[in-house]
Design goal:
The chain contains 19 helices and 6 strands. With 503 residues, the protein is mostly helical.
Length: 503
């Protein structure tokens, strides 16, 4: 057709882009955008994971919170199609929730996936809050960001000394002009609407950066699995990789994702830069124009540095855990066993390939191979347990409770699997608010999510770091079976001086 030109390059590019978009269309993020129940899913996931994908919630807490939200939606006329457990299972299947079983945990934990976080940020960008008071898109602040990046790129890539000097002299003149204006009392400022618009743009870019952390964490997981595969492959690169791991080298840090994250981590850990960043965010959140921002926007601006640090620390911890796992793996018997299995499988495969055309698939070769299987029996063959058969006729005697000794309590904690991370966080929060804490006070302030395990965790830390009051206290909690329970224990009190020891 006249006026239309085509080339193999453009056709190839079109086909490649189509294939890429088709792959994205089948991904979890696009599925969430097109889901009939997307409003219900997004409002629930946003409430469950306000801090993004790095936050983890145990299964019981997630189901309880989700039940409450579904009940609220029912009162507003929305009819959920299934209970909280059903929704959680569906969201895991569709790739919107990640389900893990952390080491030492008593139950499964859920976290938001990168795909769900990306889809929710896209939906959030469609909301009216992303527009200024006149209804226009925030073009000015975005144009200012583009211009600043272009100027910086121009300066960093220009090798002409004369052009660089001219730019520096112009910048110097502009700074001297602003100094003179400030000394004269003439301050250059923008109106509050434009200032609020730029603040929202900062918040939007920061939210995208928080999403990048989730993607980096997932990349580390993919790289970790790829490195494990390479360790088992029979190639020359495998031996070099094993030697580097045995030497304690952080191989994840040397990947593209590792180098990019390390550069950001170094910048974030710079004391002067971090302090200036936090101070600036606090000042901006308390300027007059901030009154035009919503409460959530002001909170996001003021806590930006803390949220970035939390997300970065989570990624840093994940990377360290993967590296430590790789180092332990190459030193373990598991690695040697799996490597031997791979060798045997490879030998069998080569031997089978050599026999192609020599033996028929159904030819008898005189070898019997017993495959593993499970015995199947009818339910009618099972003997049901009768509790009455084991009932005792003897009288139940009253037991007078005694105070457990500190040594007995320590042994009980060692035998139990306690979520010490949540317990320490509760103690730090309580001490920061009240200043003093005992096991009984902590149980009154926070529910015992692990029943007796939570009680033992509080007792262990108060015994280890607290002061002996030479008295006892009554501990009361609700067990995991929903039954109220109580016990007497020696009272030890934690103070603010214990915060450094409880990490």
């Amino acid at each position: 057709m006249p006026g239309i030109s085509s080339s193999p390059v453009s056709e190839t590019s079109t086909i490649a882009r189509y294939q890429d978009l088709k792959r994205l269309r089948e991904g979890a993020a696009w599925k969430l955008l097109g889901a009939d129940t997307a409003p219900l899913i997004c409002v629930c996931l946003t409430a469950l994971f306000p801090g993004g994908g790095s936050r983890q919630i145990n299964a019981s807490a997630l189901h309880a919170k989700l039940d409450g939200m579904l009940e609220s939606l029912r009162s507003a006329g929305v009819e959920p199609s299934q209970p909280a457990q059903g929704y959680a299972t569906d969201w895991v299947t569709n790739g919107w929730l990640r389900r893990d079983y952390p080491q030492g945990a008593q139950e499964e934990h859920y976290s938001l996936t990168v795909a769900a976080g990306s889809a929710m940020r896209i939906i959030d960008a469609w909301r009216p809050t992303t527009f200024d008071s006149t209804g226009g898109v925030r073009l000015e602040s975005r144009l200012a960001s583009v211009r600043a990046l272009m100027r910086e790129l121009d300066e960093l890539t220009d090798d002409n000394p004369q052009a660089r000097l001219a730019a520096l002299h112009a910048e110097k003149a502009a700074i001297e002009y602003r100094i003179a204006e400030a000394e004269a009392g003439r301050m250059l400022s923008i109106d509050e609407d434009r200032a609020a618009e730029r603040a929202r743009e900062i918040i939007a870019q920061a939210e995208q950066l928080l999403g990048d952390f989730d993607r980096v964490r997932d990349q580390f997981e993919v790289i970790h699995l790829d490195l494990r595969k390479r360790l088992l492959q029979h190639e020359g690169s495998r031996r070099e990789l094993v030697e580097r791991l045995l030497d304690g080298i952080d191989v994840l840090r040397e990947t593209d994702a590792g180098r990019a994250f390390q550069a950001f981590w170094t910048l974030l850990m710079n004391a002067s830069e971090a302090s200036l960043f936090e101070e600036t965010a606090h000042v901006l959140a308390n300027r007059p124009f901030a009154a035009r921002l919503s409460f959530d926007e002001r909170l996001s601006l003021e806590t930006l540095k803390a949220r970035l640090l939390d997300q970065a620390s989570d990624v840093h911890e994940v990377r360290g855990r993967f590296v430590a796992g790789l180092h332990a793996y190459v030193r373990s018997r598991e690695y040697a066993q799996q490597r031997r299995i791979m060798q045997l499988v490879s030998q069998a495969h080569r031997a089978a390939t050599a026999l192609v055309g020599t033996l028929r698939p159904n030819e008898e070769i005189g070898l019997s191979f017993d495959r593993t299987s499970a015995g199947v029996r009818s339910l009618s063959q099972w003997n049901l347990h009768d509790p009455a058969a084991a009932a005792t006729a003897s009288r139940i005697e009253d037991h007078v409770p005694e105070l457990a000794s500190p040594e007995e309590l320590r042994r009980m904690v060692l035998r139990a699997e306690v979520d010490m991370r949540s317990i320490k966080a509760n103690i730090r929060e309580y001490l920061g608010a009240v200043g003093r804490a005992s096991a009984g006070a902590l149980l009154q302030a926070y529910p015992a999510s692990q029943g007796l395990g939570t009680v033992l965790g509080y007792l262990q830390l108060t015994l280890r770091h607290g002061q002996d009051d030479h008295d006892s206290e009554l501990l009361e909690w609700i067990g995991m079976d929903g039954v109220p329970r109580a016990a007497w224990a020696p009272r030890y009190t934690l103070t603010l001086e214990c915060l450094d020891a409880i990490k």
